[in-house]
Model the fold of this input.
Amino acid sequence: MYCTHFDAKRCVSCHWLDRPYPEQLLLKQQQLTALLAPFAPLEVLPAVASSEQGFRHKAKMVALGSLAKPVLGIINSQGETVDLSDCPLYPAAFQRVFNLCKAFISRAGLTPYHIESRRGELKFILLSQSLHSGRFMLRFVLRSKNCLASIQKHLPWLLQQLPELEVCSVNLQPKPAAILEGEEEFVLTEHSVLAEQLNAVPLYLQPQSFFQTQPVMAASLYQTAADWAAKLQLQHGRFAAIWDLFCGVGGFGLHVANPAQQLTGIEIAPAAIASATRSAAELGFTDVKFQALDSAAFAQAAATPPDLLVVNPPRRGLGLGLCQDIQRLAPEWLLYSSCNADSLAQDLARLSQYRLIKVQLFDMFAHSSHYEVLTLLAKQA
Done:
């Protein structure tokens, strides 16, 4: 992938872009293999490669510049304002949407927020696109409600220019800190969810729901987890109960379980739980319970283990307490998806009752040192 901003050293967010992509993938695989070598995995599968550009279906742009000439991008380490509307990581359709957003910023009087002076209203533009439908969700992150009425007034113009816009909302983030979004959200469109579909599984994304940045790789990750689980059941018998901790909108659980199995999904965000429940109903699940709870607290209170435990924690990993509860509950099988191999390795050291069976790298974040890892663990006799 060629990027004019990287070439000019204006943006180096893709810090491995100067390496050929096959070299990037090989280096990641080598790093992961070395990191997990102490756990002697029985099988390290080949890495799943990413597209080299146009793969990010979720953008987080800082609102910069002026009301007359808004900029969507970053302030780099040299203090320069860099417009990334043409960033090649995003699908081609994103550039047109970014340009419409700039016109809307000027039209609605959304003065970009200035960090040093703490003046202005618009902090971020957050844009997501459904791989399945091509439709968009657009969120304006504001300092206050001052511009809410103006956005509502001018939104019909934006909807006319961009009929693919399914969901539009305003998020309030009043703190003068490097925080992406606040707790308060105002949905301004008729629809409040963006429908996605991966591997024939419907998923519904609400404004504050977590979802993978790259849906093509997410589909591959979910399908691999489903394939591994199906093979286990062929070899060892049907799972009576499956838990999906940190379940988000239900991606892993709804792929791994079938509609007749008992599925429990735990996620702290109520909006994500509502989406997962809707998807489960559409798929015909008859014994499913998605709950808005803390995953660690749920495991701590549990007395009976599932046959299969699926976990997809944030970058910090599971942590000591949850690992201890997994050891206490002792499910037969554990599927662990991680976006941070270092915290994964720490957790594997804590899960001493388990044997590492399979490992596979999914290159969710091409041109960087980051990646997703799926692992299968079995309780040792």
Observations:
- The two ends are 48 Å apart (CA to CA).
- The first helix runs from residue 4 to 7.
